Amino acid sequence: MIIIVGNKHFTHHRGRTEEKITCPSCGHSLNFVLNTVSSWFTMVFIPIFPYRFKRRVECPFCRTCLRVDKEKYNALLKTRKRDRIRKI
User: Fold this and answer.
1) Has residue 84 been placed in a domain?
2) pLDDT tens, 37-58?
3) Assigned domain for 85 exists
């Protein structure tokens, strides 16, 4: 019997920062994108349970990701701009 196990990563977009942040890589001052990346244990390609969460802010210009600690991420999350979905 063969059991296939592994992991899968899911990225959840949480909005944009209210304040403009200067990117250390490209130097642009923009509203960064708030992302949460969760890693899941999978069995036979089915996600079973999460085992790691990473909190990141991403530069929308050059796509450089910066890790932030939980307290700073939650503070940014409270003051975020929510992206509006346009109806066609």
Assistant:
1) no
2) 999 999 988 999 999 999 999 9
3) no
Q: What is the pTM of this model?
A: 0.74
Secondary-structure percent of the chain, ordered helix, strand, coil, rounded to 5: 10, 50, 40
Report how far residue 56's alpha carbon sits from residue 63's, in angstroms, rounded to the nearest whole number: 11
Find the domain containing 29 and state its range: 5-78
The H or E element that residue 71 is part of is helix 70-78
- Kindly report the number of other CB atoms within 10 A of residue 59's CB atom: 21
How many domains is the chain built from? 1
Amino acid at 82: R
> Would you say residue 37 lies in a domain?
yes
